[in-house]
Design goal:
By secondary structure, the protein is α/β, with parallel strands linked by helices. The chain has 2 domains: about 60 residues; about 140 residues, no CATH class. Helix content is about 30%, strand content about 20%. It has 5 helices and 8 strands; from the N terminus they run H-E-H-E-E-E-E-H-E-E-H-E-H. The protein has a 5-stranded mixed beta barrel with strand order 2-4-5-8-6. Strand 1, helix 2 and strand 2 form a beta-alpha-beta unit. Helix 1 packs antiparallel against helix 5. The chain starts with 14 loop residues before the first helix and ends with a helix.
Amino acid sequence: MGAQTAQLPRRPSLIAPMLAAAPVFAMLMGLGFWQVERLHWKENLLASIDARIHAPPAPLAPAMQWAALAAGDFDYAHVSVSGTFESGAEALIFRSSGGVAGALAQPGYWVMTPFHPGSGGTLLINRGFIPLDKKADRGRVAALPAGETTVTGLLRPPEERNPFTPADSPDKGEWYTRDPIAIATALQLGAAAPFSLDEDAHPAASGLPAGGATVFDIPNNHLSYAVTWFGLAATLLGVVSVFTWRRARVV
């Protein structure tokens, strides 16, 4: 009787694991390159903002042009405007901190005061920060410049609310979002700008409100996100390579 021919075991197929890993690898790489693109976009945005805030103040556009301005046209723009403050009217916007170290690193309010430019309309000006215990101090009203004055500062768009933002209290003059139109409506100011102005800090000035209240807190984590996605793609490639090598050794 003739000898039976030995049958070699079949090698496990690598097609299925390759097909499963390929789209995941492509997705991880795509996310990594997308974050690189976002990084370049954010760096250009930050450079643009830095140029705006350090530019000499330009005249504020007249009231007739305000409605046509988009946030990208004016956000952080350094402007100058002449007009008069409206004494006796203000809105307090709660902040968890004055945004600076020292005595103002505590909860308090931004003091928003109506300002009437010579070109017409009403502009809400963020004169600066006061701690909570200074809420009832009316000295800040007495300190308002009388007559026509010139104010310089940075234009800011309205803040967006989220599900965790407390409800505003217009009857108490307290707010939790910078919403110029809503504040102007509550104060019965008439036609108001859809943006506000953060008044510049004055080095020679003392007392409150503390000007220069703009908070520059624009995160730029895209590089770390890109490294994470590329790292996951490299890990997947390594796992698949080891898996393939071990499968290839099976006889």
